[in-house]
Amino acid sequence: MQTTRRTLMTASLGTALAPMLPRLSRAQAANTIRIGVLNDQSGPYRDISGPYGVTCTQQAVQESGNKGFTVEVVSADHQNKPDVGANIARQWYDRDGVDMILDVPTSSVGLAVNQVAKEKNKAYINCGAATSDLTGPQCTPVTICWMYDTYMLAKSTGGAMVKAGGDSWFFITADYAFGHALERDTTTFVKAQGGKVLGSVKYPFPSTSDFSSFLLQAQASRAKVIGMANAGADTINCIKQAAEFGITKRDVKLAALLMFLSDVHALGLETAQGLVLTESFYWDLNDRTRAFTQRVLPKLNGTYPNMNSAANYSATLHFLKVVADMGVPAAKASGVAIIDRMKAMPTDDDAFGPGTIRADGRKLCPAYLFQVKTPAESRAPWDYYKLLQTTPADEAFRPMSEGGCPLVRS
Amino acid sequence: MFDILGIPAPLLFGQLLLGLINGAFYAMLSLGLAVIFGLLNIINFAHGAQFMMGAFAAWMLLEWLGLGYWWALLLAPIIVGFTGVVLERTMIRQLYKLDHLYGLLLTFGLGLIIEGVFRNEFGSSGLPYRIPPELSGAWDLGFMFLPVYRGWVVVAALILCLATWLLIEKTRLGAYLRAATENAALVQAFGVNVPRMVTLTYGAGVALAAIGGVLAAPIYSVNPQMGTNLIIVVFAVVVIGGMGSILGSIVTGFGLGIIEGLTKVFWPEASATVIFVIMAIVLLARPAGLFGRA
Question: Do B11 and A266 touch (CB under 8 A)?
């Protein structure tokens, strides 16, 4: 009994220490580009990117082919905690020879890693965090935001809802950087178009699962639109419970300000039908997106890619193109140099088509406003969206002059 | 309509009712914990995972076998309870003679493993599970719109709590159980098979968690981390009520649900913290909890 327990404890101690051993591959680092995918692998945002984001990154590496250097993809779970994320980033850049950190959803973590990347002069491409501050006051010369931000979501979804008559709003907001930014940016659009905001509640993230109380407060405010400034499992719970309490039957509209294909899948069309949301990628959008989806699908365990995991693919392709162009030693030497080169070169890939990156680090792509199909309209598995309107790339995002990014002030 | 403390009365009543509904879940879960701790002296940290297994069992029964909600309410506790029996027989049993801490560590680890396996298999964004047609719809109470299903949850929880309390406090079987906690050797000497009774008690505690899971499936997102958010709060409930006190866990479960509900109106940001503040105050004033015996 005694020995078995001791053996067990030694074994578990060994397992716990294993990740701390230095990576063996350090010796051959000179000709290897290392990409670190940092995201939520175990919490409420896992299905938005998580392991699928890693797979899409590997897909891009594979499609880039042999460019004369080796590429390694490492990944880690930041658990939606800024301190955990910043520590992993530090360790990756300092010790493990990671040249670029990718993805980093959860705005609070995204902002923390942003500071580390800036301090270390290493490339950082954010696909998952939505806060528009990353290309605003917090912008850095080593950072690119590849995907949606709160401004673009607010403009596309929020703007469309106000135009459709939803001129009074109540927000249910996740109480951290992302929720705050999304509420702030949406409020700006609602007010600019003559609407008003009747109130908001900020709920503790990520420990809330019952939203009925907040939904009733929203209903009591008599707002026409309930803006859900949250994401992932929280949004799913909100929508499910709003349906249960009959809120949507009483002419109150739900605005899912950030919602993904995987969320619609989890809700089921019965509950999700009719919702209006914004994504910048949908697998069934055109021939190129379908081609990309067909290539990556067998590796995704039956899940279809959404805009976040597709962004990982797109960003990795462009990054590797630029590394090949400037050479591995130059790419490794300076994060600023490689990001500058990425901004100078136009992007093009199957998931997003042609695009550009602005001086403040904003990658430009069109914003698509989708409506979730009814069960009768959906003809195949994952056939969930119909396109309502497209905001062109140059209008979808906040103009550089309004962002307050120090890089473009001169 | 009149106002109370600046909040319209209908809204306040609505929140009280919602608090009661959440309290029903707290009560059901803390009841299972109290039974297991009171009779086995094991702090069952896998309870959240077992709650989640209950919800997933309901989904699997529907999706794979076509068995609806009512079958799930019957079968899920049996299935999940059986996994509890297996855990007790193979692992937890080894730890009865050791400090509480070992049981806590083992069940905590088991909880993480179970959650990880489900996450690997089903992802984190959850699975759809619909409210059974007999319980869909809602009553208009004037001050709020009460979904029939939520009303059912409160009734079911009350019945379950009362039945468990009666079983343990008023029946012969309950008397054996209580006696076995006091002095297992003596009860065994009277010819009662104590180890089997203990195994079945653990299974029953786990089954209670699973019933909670089935009840939660139609209203919360069925995802692997659904128990994690709840379990910490439920432990606070158990500590406030008094470790192992059945009545304490029921009363505090409902009571804290209501307090949390009110916090969501007056200070939503603090709604996740309020229960722990109460826990700290209670521990300072009455270390054994409100209903515990020191």
Answer: no
DSSP codes joined into one string, B174-221: HHHHHHHHH-HHHHHHTT--HHHHHHHHHHHHHHHHHHHHHHHTTTS-
Is A243's Cβ below 8 Å from some Cβ in B? no
Check CB contact of A203 with chain B, cutoff 8 Å: yes
d(CA B128, CA A142): 41
Q: What is the ipTM of this complex?
A: 0.78
CB pair distance less than 8 Å for A233 and B124? yes
CA distance A352 to chain B (A): 25
CB A240, CB A57: distance < 8 Å? no
pLDDT tens by residue, B139-171: 877 777 788 998 999 999 999 999 999 998 899
Q: What is the largest CA-CA distance in chain B?
A: 67
Structural domain spans, chain B: 3-225
Q: Is A375 on the interface with B (CB under 8 A)?
A: no
d(C-alpha A323, C-alpha A335), whole Å: 11
B57, B72 Cβ separation under 8 angstroms? yes
From the candidates B153, B259, B264, which should be mutated to test the interface with A, based on the most A CB atoms within 10 A? B264
Options 3.40.50.2300, 1.10.555.10, 2.60.120.10, 3.40.47.10; CATH for A28-148+287-365 is 3.40.50.2300
**What predicted TM-score, i.e. pTM, was given to this entire model?**
0.80
Query: What CATH number belongs to A151-283+366-396?
Result: 3.40.50.2300
